[in-house]
Design a protein that fits this description.
Helix content is 27%, strand content 23%. With 380 residues, the protein is of the alpha/beta class. Helix 1 crosses helix 8. The termini are far apart.
């Protein structure tokens, strides 16, 4: 069902119905700024049964700072920004006729379609994965279940605490590992937490000094670091690394080794050997120019874009498409200060070679995050 892009799509939009399918982080950003697209003459419809989760508060929720209800943002609040919400799942897609069919039989025609469906764990990525006592992803529901499970054991006066391995690279893995430590610190007990990643720097986009400070701080708090390491299998409560060494891990928190959501199947898009879908620089499908994929594979990048950078790129790409403009878009055009909640009131922020840390970073991040949430909710 591969479509070729007609030449008349190059310079002007054809049709104005934009459908957003999925409750991913990039769609939350688009939904919060839907009025910008509506002003372009578009009708914006969000199709998802699930609410959004505010990604910047997930680490804090795991560490005990936020509750699940705090991080959940109702999908229907898109109406505050001029959009529409349909609580349903897509079961059939006709890309040639540009029509989706919902589970209740309703059909929606679209001119532009954006997909942002959270991925799931690839159970075949590491042999023995599911013999662990628990495997969790970075989704709001999984992190909440993990926190409740750990709090039950932390609150007990006796009994051994489980060891936890966080598998992944980059800011998300670091933030979750730091907040697992914070959860133990809240109860005056130390959780055994190991961060396993194959990058030399926990924050690939930050300077060496920032990474050095971060590593020293996490080490002082008791985090075990296995960097430049790859997990090869899981066996008898241990994660076996590529050098043959073992990491004690009763529970696994996985931020990588993911595969696309099963919800993408009806769209019939071609994938690579790892199940990923290639996209152009503006997150537009190479196979179907009327589709945008927020989680598509961007090739030849020194560092993968952050959640915020992808979200900003998607919004700009959709805005440009609806306006008929044609400009070169790159995710690094949207680089901003990045900040991590380390769970101990001393956060870190960086942008390229610049960085800072301390309590004032926490206050700044807190204000920024609250402002974004209030904006999406329409100050409700």
């Amino acid at each position: 069902m591969t479509n070729t892009q007609p030449s008349h799509l190059d310079n002007r939009p054809v049709g104005q119905h934009l459908i957003l399918v999925g409750n991913g982080d990039s769609h939350l950003h688009v939904a919060a700024h839907a009025e910008r697209l509506v002003q372009r003459g578009a009708r914006v419809t969000l199709v998802t049964r699930q609410d959004f989760a505010f990604a910047d508060w997930l680490g804090g929720m795991l560490g005990g700072e936020w509750q699940l209800d705090d991080v959940r943002l109702p999908a229907d609040r898109i109406v505050a920004h001029g959009g529409e919400h349909v609580a349903a799942e897509v079961v059939q897609v006709d890309r040639r006729q540009r029509r989706i069919t919902l589970e209740d039989g309703r059909q929606l025609d679209y001119d532009w379609l954006s997909l942002d469906l959270p991925p799931v764990v690839d159970e075949h990525a590491i042999p023995g994965f599911y013999t662990a006592k628990g495997v969790f992803t970075a989704s709001a529901d999984d992190l909440w279940i993990l926190r409740q499970r750990l709090e039950t054991q932390l609150a007990g006066a006796t009994g051994d605490l489980p060891s936890i391995a966080v598998i992944g690279n980059g800011p998300t893995a670091v933030e979750l590992a730091a907040n697992l430590l914070a959860l133990g610190e809240r109860y005056g007990r130390r959780l055994t937490v190991t961060l396993v990643g194959n990058d030399r720097r926990p924050l690939p986009g930050a300077c060496q000094r920032a990474n050095r400070w971060l590593l020293q701080r996490l080490h002082r708090r008791g985090l075990r670091l296995e960097l430049v390491a790859t997990a090869t299998r899981y066996d008898r409560n241990q994660l076996i690394l590529d050098d043959g060494s073992g990491v004690d891990a009763d529970l696994l928190l996985v931020t990588e080794h993911l595969r696309p959501s099963p919800g993408l199947t009806p769209f019939g898009l071609e994938t690579d050997g790892n199940g990923r879908i290639a996209v152009g620089p503006a997150l537009r499908s190479r196979e179907d120019p009327r589709l945008f994929l927020a989680r598509g594979l961007l090739a030849d990048l020194a560092h993968p874009p952050t959640t915020r950078e992808r979200a900003a790129l998607l919004l700009e790409a959709l805005d440009q498409t609806l306006s008929g403009e044609s400009r070169t878009l790159r995710y690094d055009q949207f680089e901003r200060w990045k900040a991590l909640n380390l769970g101990d009131l001393r956060d870190i922020a960086w942008r390229g070679s610049l960085w800072c840390r301390g309590r004032w970073v926490r206050r700044w991040k807190h204000r920024r995050d609250r402002r974004e949430v209030a904006h999406y909710l329409g100050n409700a």
